């Protein structure tokens, strides 16, 4: 059952006309994780933001984005806003920039929860505490009172995942959430994403250019290059038996490096299932 | 060089550059270009309107307005430019030394800059004029003395940012002398920052000199200078307001050209600034983080 | 936070000392002999060498530099800046009221500047690239390229002469504030609003705006965050505007015959009245340092990241 269907998505720059994403089509099945892979500049993030309707003002988009029976491209801002957060949620790459630098992160978390639920203050605090503990953050209350620059990238990613646990959205769009993290944090955050899917049963679109991470999470994979979808299919198919030359180039060069790395390190790394 | 090409494509920038260049050239070649002697008095022609011999008419002493304007370019524009170059030069040397060598030299030089910057520029210029006396030279000296610290700070920040880059470290490893590194690697990349800062400082200096002359603290009669011409025009403002037109419009035109030039320079050198671009983040250092203190005359 | 305030305040003390010392030395740089200035002002017809020597002794100019500096500094703290060379009256009796008058003008102007800068800056940022933004920026370019005295003269010409609406001399009524404040406000707001505008523009593109919207937050909450972050930069700029304008009102005061520091300073310069010039520089430099310290503290309070760096 397709939860999200994108047909002929096109994103272009209103001032200048250059096309950034051309004619992309893909589906997201309920409960599955679709990974979008490709090099920087291939249009992965733009696609995510187009689905949320949050591209910057100069960018225009066309095409059909069917979500729960409605074409998102046809909705006005107010209707889109009512869907954001609870039905469509996004996790950004750089945790430190995702939160307002001038207030403690508790402010954002509370405001978001107040927007979607009718809990009182102590209920909110308790639920936040539970959610943050389940993503293995020590001292949740202390963290609520800290500024973004006082926390590490990995912690901030886990805060965003904790918020997802509470919001229980239908679709989570994760835009390179592990790219800015060191290896250890990467591992932990990927674990949290796996648990997030198990607990909420949500569907996920996971954008990344790190194939090791993708291998661990994705059911289906879509390859993008220079704004177009080159190939898509199940994860197994793409990684072992890709049809398109570019895909094979992507997967094999990573694998060669990873295999060599493992040889040198003498053990299994995150790259293997 | 490619950036310069973009810059010229921007028509506003090209026009501004043209205006500035024409003005500068006219000032340098004033004796050949000006139709009449700027100081020649013809009392019978007082306040005469435009004529073929005197294209912009005559002032309250019957002198040719156009010639005075052209000769006035020298103090108003050219001498200020010289002061700017001197100020930037000193600031650049200090800034380079401080930013490149860091450590104690840097701390020492920056303390001095801090002290210099603690004095409000306009006030100190007035003080220096007060101590040394009125006149163009003293005002220019005051400008140089007050502004170098500010340029030094900005250039130092720029140099520090580039001195950390990989290719500089590589050059050091290769054993390149410091002076050569500074000249070949850092100077070319920090030049844009220096250019933009100087350009915006220039317009405020021109306006300030104009203001000082207006108050009678600058160049003395009978020399021609735009601010002084406006002062003289102000005397008869109620009876003959049109006398303010010529020096006023010239000043506005020139300063506007410099402002547009600065703006275009900034956009050309940092293309992200054009539309919805991210401006470079404010520096944590509180002194350098202040925006230019544009003390308007 | 408290520690930062303390440290910052502490640094300003030696700075003030150095500033005052340099101000004091300033006088010795003059090619003119102070004794001569005093005698000239007193209208003494024939100045002999003995007379000069006597005057120098009377002025205490024979004592060593550091001693003179220290005495002067201590008396400055009591607001005793000595006597004017020209009039013989205590400097503070002339400087004090002038300072107050200019201060009034400055405060009113700064308030107007803050309001106008924020309004224009936010407006232009939200309508960025559109006609409103371009025209406001174009007009501001033009207005700030105008020397302030030209702007003032034009306003005087139009409002007072042609329309006979507003007073142009002195500071008698509330109405006499209008024109000078307008001139100052236009000159500075024209520059400052651009700071607000660019700050807002860069904030509008920040990730926290994207994330906030992605979480479904109402637009007004997002706008509040944007404003709060944008105005941080502007805060220190506005703070520093006070001492800057305090020292730069010379031309405006001249045109509107405002009895303030500007008028006083120019007259002192023309008559070589050193004690007044000295006190003027000291008062303004001190207020510059003090407000600067203050503005850094406010900046740290507003921007939590700065507190750690001390």
Terminal Cα separation of chain C, in Å?
9 Å
Task: Provide the gyration radius of chain C in Å.
Answer: 24 Å
Assign the structural class of chain C, choosing from mainly alpha, mainly beta, alpha/beta, alpha+beta, or little secondary structure: mainly alpha
Secondary structure tally, helices of chain B: 12
Describe the main β-sheet of chain B briefly: none
Tell me the fraction of residues in β-strands of chain C, as a range: under 5%
- Described by its quaternary structure, the protein is heterotrimer
Question: What features would you highlight for this structure?
Answer:
heterotrimer; A: 273 residues; alpha/beta; Rossmann fold; six-stranded mixed β-sheet; four-stranded antiparallel β-sheet; 11 helices; 10 strands; 25% strand; globular; C: 310 residues; mainly alpha; 0% strand
Give your account of this protein's structure.
The complex is a heterotrimer of chains A (273), B (297) and C (310). With 273 residues, chain A is α/β, with parallel strands linked by helices. Chain A has one domain (2-264): 3-Layer(aba) Sandwich (Rossmann fold). Chain A has helices spanning 44-52, 77-83, 95-98, 105-116, 121-134, 140-144, 153-167, 183-200, 211-217, 235-241, 245-265; strands spanning 2-13, 19-29, 33-37, 59-67, 70-71, 88-91, 171-175, 203-208, 220-225, 228-234. Chain A has a 6-stranded mixed sheet, with helices on both faces. Chain A starts with a strand and ends in an 8-residue tail after the last helix. By secondary structure, chain B is mostly helical. In chain B, α2 (11-28) crosses α4 (65-101) and α7 runs antiparallel to α9. With 310 residues, chain C is mainly alpha-helical. Helix content of chain C is 79%, strand content 0%. Chain C is built from 14 helices and no strands. Chain C is flat and about 85 Å long. The mean pLDDT of chain C is 82. The interface between A and C is medium-sized, with 32 and 23 residues.
Layout of helices and strands:
The complex is a heterotrimer of chains A (273), B (297) and C (310).
Chain A: E1 2-13, E2 19-29, E3 33-37, H1 44-52, E4 59-67, E5 70-71, H2 77-83, E6 88-91, H3 95-98, H4 105-116, H5 121-134, H6 140-144, H7 153-167, E7 171-175, H8 183-200, E8 203-208, H9 211-217, E9 220-225, E10 228-234, H10 235-241, H11 245-265
Parallel strand pairs in A: 3-8, 3-9, 6-7, 7-8
Antiparallel strand pairs in A: 1-2, 1-4, 4-5, 9-10
Chain B: H1 2-9, H2 11-28, H3 30-33, H4 65-101, H5 103-117, H6 121-132, H7 136-163, H8 166-174, H9 178-214, H10 226-235, H11 245-269, H12 286-289
Chain C: H1 2-28, H2 34-42, H3 49-58, H4 65-77, H5 91-126, H6 131-145, H7 148-162, H8 175-204, H9 207-214, H10 219-248, H11 250-256, H12 261-270, H13 274-302, H14 304-309
Helix pairs in contact in C: 1-13, 2-3, 5-6, 5-8, 5-10, 5-12, 5-13, 6-8, 7-8, 7-11, 8-10, 10-13, 11-12, 12-13
């Amino acid at each position: 059952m397709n939860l999200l269907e994108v047909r002929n998505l096109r994103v272009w720059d209103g001032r200048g006309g250059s096309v950034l994403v051309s004619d992309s089509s893909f589906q997201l099945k309920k409960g599955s994780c679709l990974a979008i892979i490709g090099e920087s500049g291939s249009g992965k993030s733009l696609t995510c933001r187009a689905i949320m309707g949050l591209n910057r003002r100069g960018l225009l988009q066309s095409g059909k984005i069917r979500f729960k029976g409605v074409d998102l491209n046809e909705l006005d801002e107010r209707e889109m806003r009512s869907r954001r957060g609870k039905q469509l949620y996004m996790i950004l790459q750089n945790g430190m920039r995702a939160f307002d630098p001038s207030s403690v992160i508790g402010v954002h978390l509370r405001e978001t929860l107040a927007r979607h639920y009718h809990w009182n203050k102590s209920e909110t605090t308790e639920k936040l505490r539970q959610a943050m503990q389940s993503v293995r953050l020590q001292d949740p209350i202390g963290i609520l009172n800290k500024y973004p620059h006082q926390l590490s990238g990995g912690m901030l990613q886990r805060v965003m995942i904790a918020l997802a646990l509470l919001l229980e959205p239908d679709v989570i769009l994760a835009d390179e959430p592990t790219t800015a993290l060191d290896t250890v944090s990467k591992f932990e955050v990927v674990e949290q994403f796996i648990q997030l899917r198990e607990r909420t049963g949500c569907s996920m679109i996971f954008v990344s250019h790190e194939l090791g991470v993708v291998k661990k999470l994705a059911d289906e994979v879509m390859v993008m290059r220079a704004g177009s979808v080159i190939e898509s299919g199940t994860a197994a198919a793409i990684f072992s038996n890709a049809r398109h030359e570019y895909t094979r180039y992507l997967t094999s060069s990573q694998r060669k490096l990873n295999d060599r790395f493992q040889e040198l390190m003498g053990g299994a790394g995150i790259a293997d299932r | 060089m490619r950036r310069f090409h973009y810059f010229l494509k921007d028509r506003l920038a090209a026009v501004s550059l043209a205006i500035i260049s024409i003005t500068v050239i006219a000032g340098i070649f004033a004796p050949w270009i000006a139709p009449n002697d700027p100081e020649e008095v013809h009392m019978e022609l007082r306040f005469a309107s435009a004529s073929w011999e005197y294209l912009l008419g005559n002032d309250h002493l019957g002198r040719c307005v156009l010639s005075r304007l052209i000769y006035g370019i020298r103090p108003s524009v050219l001498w200020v430019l010289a002061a700017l170059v001197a100020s930037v030069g000193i600031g650049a040397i200090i800034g380079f030394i401080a930013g490149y060598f860091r450590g104690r030299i840097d701390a020492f030089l920056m303390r001095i800059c801090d002290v210099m910057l603690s004095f409000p520029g306009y006030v100190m210029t007035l003080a220096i004029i007060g101590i040394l006396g009125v006149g163009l030279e003293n005002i220019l000296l005051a400008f140089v003395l007050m502004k170098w610290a500010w340029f030094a700070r900005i250039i130092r920040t720029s140099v520090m940012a580039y001195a950390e880059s990989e290719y500089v470290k590589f050059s050091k490893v290769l054993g390149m002398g410091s002076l050569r590194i500074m000249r070949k690697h850092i100077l070319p990349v920090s030049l844009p920052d220096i250019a933009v800062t100087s350009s915006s400082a220039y317009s405020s200096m021109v306006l300030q000199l104009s203001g000082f002359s207006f108050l009678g603290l600058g160049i003395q009669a009978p020399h021609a200078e735009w601010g002084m011409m406006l002062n003289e025009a102000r005397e008869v403002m109620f009876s003959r307001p049109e006398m303010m037109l010529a020096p006023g419009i010239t000043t506005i035109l020139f300063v506007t050209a410099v402002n547009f030039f600065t703006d275009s320079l900034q956009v050309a050198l940092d293309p992200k600034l054009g539309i919805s671009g991210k401006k470079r983040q404010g520096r944590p250092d509180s002194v350098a983080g202040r925006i230019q203190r544009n003390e308007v005359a | 936070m408290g520690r930062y305030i303390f440290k910052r305040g502490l640094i300003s003390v030696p700075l003030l000392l150095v500033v005052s010392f340099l101000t004091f030395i300033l006088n010795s740089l003059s090619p003119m002999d102070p004794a001569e200035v005093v005698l000239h002002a007193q209208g003494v017809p024939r100045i002999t060498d003995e007379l000069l020597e006597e005057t120098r002794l009377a002025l205490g100019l024979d004592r060593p530099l550091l001693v003179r500096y220290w005495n002067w500094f201590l008396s400055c703290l009591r607001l005793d800046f000595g006597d004017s060379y020209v009039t013989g009256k205590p400097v503070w009796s002339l400087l004090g009221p002038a300072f107050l008058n200019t201060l009034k003008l400055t405060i009113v102007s700064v308030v107007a500047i803050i309001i106008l800068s924020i309004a224009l800056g936010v407006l232009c940022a939200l309508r960025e690239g559109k006609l409103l933004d371009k025209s406001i920026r174009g007009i501001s370019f033009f207005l700030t390229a105008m020397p302030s005295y030209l702007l003032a003269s034009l306003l005087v010409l139009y409002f007072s002469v042609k329309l006979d609406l507003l007073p142009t001399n002195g500071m008698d009524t509330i109405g006499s504030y209008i024109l000078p404040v307008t001139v100052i406000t236009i000159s500075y707001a024209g520059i400052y609003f651009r700071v607000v505008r660019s700050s807002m523009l860069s904030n509008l593109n920040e990730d926290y705006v994207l994330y906030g919207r992605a979480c479904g937050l109402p637009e007004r909450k997002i706008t509040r965050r944007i404003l709060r972050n944008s105005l941080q930069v502007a805060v220190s700029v506005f703070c520093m505007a006070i001492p800057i304008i305090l020292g730069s009102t010379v031309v405006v005061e001249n045109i509107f015959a405002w009895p303030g520091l500007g008028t006083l300073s120019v007259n002192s310069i023309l008559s070589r009245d050193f004690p007044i010039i000295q006190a003027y520089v000291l008062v303004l430099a001190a207020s510059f340092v003090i407000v600067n310290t203050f503005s850094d503290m406010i900046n740290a309070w507003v921007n939590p990241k700065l507190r750690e760096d001390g």
